[in-house]
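Deliverable D4.2, example record:
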Amino acid sequence: MELSSKYNPKETQDKWLKFWKDKNVFHAKADSGKKPFTIVIPPPNVTGILHMGHALNNTLQDIIIRYKRMNGFEALWMPGTDHAGIATQNVVEKQLAKEGKTRQDLGRDEFLKRLWTWKEDHGDAIIDQLEKLGSSCDWARTRFTMDDDYSNAVKEAFIHLYQKKLIYRGERIINWCPRCQTALSDEEAEHKEKNGKLYYIKYPLKSRDRHDFLETSREGKLVPVTTFVIVATTRPETLLGDTAVAVNPKDERYLKLIGKILVLPLVNRDIKIIADDFVAAEFGTGAVKVTPAHDPNDFMMGQRHHLPMINVMNPDASINEQGGKYKGLDRFEARKRILADLETLGLLEKIEDHKNAVGHCYRCDTIVEPRLSKQWFVKMKPLAKPALEAVQKGEIKIHPAHWSKVYTNWMEDIHDWCISRQIWWGHRIPVWYDKEGNYFVAKSEDEAKVQAETKHGKSVDLKQDEDVLDTWFSSWLWPFATLGWPKQNNDLKFFYPTNTLMTASEILFFWVARMIMAGYEFMGDKPFSDVLIHGTVRDAKGRKMSKSLGNAIDPLEIIDEYGADALRFSLIINSGQDIFISKEKFEIGRNFANKIWNASRLVFMNCTDTLSKGDYENLSLNELDLPSRWIIARFYETLEKVSRAIEEFHYSEAEILIQEFFWGNYCDWYLELIKAKFNDTNIQKTALFILKNSLKMMHPFIPFVTEEIYSKMNSQDNCLPLASWPKFDEKLIDKIATQQMQTIIDTITSMRNIRAFWNIKPNELIEAFVVTSDTWHNLFLQNSADIRNLGRLKNLTIDVNPVNLKNAAAALVGTTKIFIPLEGLIDLNAEKKRMSADITQKQKSIEGLQSRLSNETFTSKAPEEIITKEKERLDTLTKEVNELKNVLANLS
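Output generated by the structure prediction step:
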């Protein structure tokens, strides 16, 4: 039953990971007769390696699933990985580039073979890493978004939506990544604020229209007043595709110009001045260029005014044949040439600095190009309606609550979703075309041929759509496709809807909102009841962790150096709206794991017989001393609060409560109080009872060290993940014992504080006087041995009458006064001088801060955080001065 002198995290982790997996401890069954509790893992990309965001997210999930499992639920945590279309294809394309090849060189079939080989070799790395973290998933169920059954679900969803006319093919402005050469959804084009330029370009009026704006010159000649319109743009290279200039119909500056003809600079194409309410008269000059093939708002204007749509760019964002002499130039090189040519012609009026939000590819960070393209889309408004109502009515709750408003705003302004991607890795769109361009939506080519033969009356050749579906089109089916949908099996009936989803804010729209829509559309029910949006892991300076900044901390290195328990505990206890972490903070978790180990070792060494018999489950409060009744009460008070904190997703609060109880109450007080009393059987039983139940309470947070210790406690359920969560018992909370013991603790603490303040050596025995009331007199007498022992006293006098002591330090605990004579322990005169000098110095600092904070120049210009820190410093110094003055007064 003994524990080794030092905790070995690696040895313990390897041992229990193997045990849990071999024994299938985390497997959930649909026919267990228990109540289900289900969570689905946000599937990491097969390209992924464990980072701190994964570590945080999966620790949060593991806490709730272990807690629910111990509370008697049939708890399923569904694991799996995402094929991550663009990301995975990019990895393999980079490998090919090193060989001097492209995917086109290999051809589609051979390239896909390469991708599957890469997936088989590397795709499970992230799963192995999640296991090392201690994630208690049902690993036998691990799914992949491109396995056969899942692919069938994706086809089913596409056909279902197409038949309901919610999927359509159309020519629209989409976000185009020139690097990945594929369309992106609006959510995949991350907008970043950039310091750009606003270019003012002169668009000449056609000669004939200039005669409508004549006035008499000084020489008596009729000359045109208006010869051009100035247009402001951030993207002059798209000028090549302009088909109009637009003004607001209420803008009086341009009323007479509406309908007139301009000559497009450099291209010499006639374009009309149109009026449209969309134009903001206050932007730039109030006149905007209209490029329907390269801007979503211009596209809408183009449709309203029946304008030509001229695409001037190739898929790689170079200028195409529509660009005349600029053909073949990269878009940004074309911008330079166009600006130079405009300046030469005197048509570049001016250039201003301008901040604007520019879309970037979420995978490769390339600036995206709005581009007219024929793609497949999902109509989102009908799907969004029930998903929006679910959150508004509270059927689905998002935590923290402020994310509900963000969700609502996005859903109310939702746009159609571009779901086709011009890549090869992914779910190929289940559509086949004949030579005439007719298309047939089907699960297989054979099904499509049947449709085509029905249409044509004969067998015809078909070709499948080259594009694949957006990765998120498969991911939005995750809560039910992983359970076997569209098949109606027992797992799907039992485990769906799931209960809780835990994820990061950046995929609230990518994934969470779409899963809610899919749940109602395909299952007729919500996919989950609660969504927890956790914070972002940042470094100590508040910067988001990233490879490019060089501030990322590798969780696998932390596991190797500190242990998985240390990683988990430290991440959660530091979590909040965001998590600010540095390598040193993982010492918090390591130290706590070591504390649990050392405390358990102490108890085991002193409770050998009781431990071996396993006879410590049933305790009678009447037979226990005050410290034992107190520690039992404190345990159940803590258990209730920890359970509530977990249920309410306040995991950091739960860990703080656990640490305060186990380290603060159990180790620092109870074990210290009973060290000399271990020969008492009731004390042994209490120590073991609290230890065992504390291990259960701590297990969801720190599973490895708790499982290792628990396995040696001669318990009937020697597998802690399957043990029962401690049952709250209010009858075991002795409130009188709690109050009495707290008085004893506060008394000892005040004695220790006096020692520390006066720099009295820890090993020096001192004298103390306790002056209390008749009510508390017996309590102090009965516990005087404990007070003497932990207070390091050579003599303790307890009295109800006042004492007259000279040069004694004093403290107050409720109505009880504690006095410690200082004569002979310190040089009182020297200490008085030191304190007087300290008061003088601190008073000068206080005056300086008061002067600074009353200075309007300082308070109006200084950052808010600086002012707050200065106020806090003033408050601290004031309290310190008052405390020093009180001490001096007591001594006098």
